[in-house]
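Sample 1 of the test manifest.
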Amino acid sequence: MGQKGEALRQRIVVSADQLFYQKGYESTSFSDIADDVGISRGNFYYHFKSKDEILNAVIETRLTEIEQMLNEWSKQYTDPKQRIVEHIDILTNHQDKIKNHGCPVGSLCAELAKQNHSMLRDANKMFAVQRDWLTVQLKELGLGKEARQVAMHLLARSQGIATLTNAFEDQNFLRQEVKQLKQWLGEQIQGQNKNGN
Amino acid sequence: MGQKGEALRQRIVVSADQLFYQKGYESTSFSDIADDVGISRGNFYYHFKSKDEILNAVIETRLTEIEQMLNEWSKQYTDPKQRIVEHIDILTNHQDKIKNHGCPVGSLCAELAKQNHSMLRDANKMFAVQRDWLTVQLKELGLGKEARQVAMHLLARSQGIATLTNAFEDQNFLRQEVKQLKQWLGEQIQGQNKNGN
DNA sequence: GTCTATATACGGATAGAC
DNA sequence: GTCTATCCGTATATAGAC
């Protein structure tokens, strides 16, 4: 073949990203990724020295994508409440994948924690950037020092919803809880903002 | 040796139970369990035909233990609110293990879901018995048809707390959220019961 | 840069001695 | 009932041809 190395490297990361999400990190073998990309196992080690290096690239990619998504919302919506609602709607917009594979961030962190994998501290940055972004939005809505705690609460609610949707394979539960979570959000900031959802 | 078979079988299940929780199901090998129990790998197959059979035994054991725990609380406490508070306090009482390994039920279901493992439908019964028990308590507190939904909500809140406590390795977050969850519970049933917590 | 072939280790599972 | 020895598949990783 001989396509430019960087392009192939990116294709490997994309395949690994999907497979790690669908099957889990440890359960995904080099063969799985190689088959998906359409290259040989040996070719891998030209681009990555080890499986952990692929994991690292996947985490960095996901982190960048999350940051881009949040920046996009910050630009697209002027109302901080609307921005937070967009964040909650991640659940609704990915309900089918969540039903089958859970949350990509939560499930990866859980797996790495079980394996005492040092890269857990990189993976949980995917939560941290969301926490920090949510904190900013909440402060814009008038919350004070408690904003960060409320942001963590929002993340926890989303994670709980994803976990049970996945365990019971039940999207109805997800939709039900998302509705309640939006109501709760409205109550938290009532009087501070007039835009309903 | 020659100790009675049933006793050894039980010791295998106990070791497997702990190791599946600490390392995950797939990451736990026969060697791991054999070393922990103090027997040879080969001896395994006298007691279990396959790894899935051990998993099945572990799930059944956990399910029985959960049911016994819930029954115990039903006997020990007359106030349904107090019973629910006991359930919430599982988090506090196991905060160190949760920090390191997450929730044993949630993390197992997540792993089985990723592997498309048929035994997910057995594992999620560990959630279902809790949901049903919580529903009974909530109905005793005066809730109507919405009791089941509130029960699922409680489970989801606990799961979210466990997931983020684990991901951030932060027990402070757990304690903070447990406090809020108990407050929320009080608000849900206010006027129906006088016992505070 | 990509391939095939291979080294090496470990997984679950089996056979048969004791 | 428990052991040792072993089969077989697959995993990560490497060497070297092209």
